[in-house]
Amino acid sequence: MPLENITNDPLVPDLESTEYEERLDLAIKAINASGLQSNGRPYLSFRQAAKDYDVKRSTLSDRFRGVKNRKDAHADERKLSPAHEKAVVDWAKEMGRRGLPLQIPTLAAYAKAISGQDISDSWVRRFRTRHPELRMRWTTGLEKCRAKGLNPTAVKEYFNVLTELINKYNIPVENIYNTDEKGIQLGVGKKVLAFFDRDQKDVYNVEDGDRELVTIIETVCANGESIVPAVIFKGQRRDLEWGRNNPCNAR
User: Domain coordinates of the chain in residue numbers?
Assistant: First the structure.
């Protein structure tokens, strides 16, 4: 399976595995804190501790005797050290926030550059499993100029001015319209699957706006009504195909 097709596999990051390890640790601490009987056994039995913390008795017994979990047991066999993996995770989060998210092939290339070894699709799946703080989502295109202009200071100032004008002239909602245009870049704009911080809400992939566009203009009233949209194609004369599939009667 190619790296680009790693989407919904059975090894998707699962927070329950982390919670299970935490319950195991709590059970071991409870056993140690219970003290020892005269025969050298702890007062809190493995069976009771496993029941109290909802874990398997055999797993609890193994961990108590020092047997490592699968993740720790194979730590030395990983292609990246824990420190290197953390650096990749932090970088993936930062690039996602910048609108330049790491796609699967890009992340694999970074891992290969660090480790000097080939990175397979199974390694990427295991990386995702080890780091539930990352998730994979489909991006939405965002032009560079919009990415630069969309910042908290500019947005807040805009709505402050708008509110002042509405209050000053007592403008009713039926006279307030929003007109916007959406440029569809020909040959680009495809959504891509990439890594993001699990807590990041909006995911964008910044694209170059210097391309030929088909422009869509929409106008919506604050009371919920809307004007028929308009579509602008680049051409010297009208093409009949432009309006053939037009369910909203756009102009």
Answer: 142-190+212-243
Per-residue pLDDT of the chain (251 residues; tens, 9 = 90+): 455 444 443 333 343 456 888 888 888 888 888 888 888 888 888 889 888 988 888 888 888 887 766 555 445 457 788 888 888 888 888 877 776 777 888 888 888 888 888 888 888 888 888 888 887 777 665 555 555 666 777 788 888 888 998 998 999 999 999 998 877 766 555 566 666 677 776 665 555 555 567 788 999 999 999 988 988 877 777 777 766 777 777 77
DSSP letter string over 70-97? HHHHTGGG-SS-HHHHHHHHHHHHHHHH
Q: What is the pTM of this model?
A: 0.37
Could you tell me which residues come within 8 angstroms of residue 200 by beta carbon, excluding any fewer than 6 positions away? 93, 96, 97
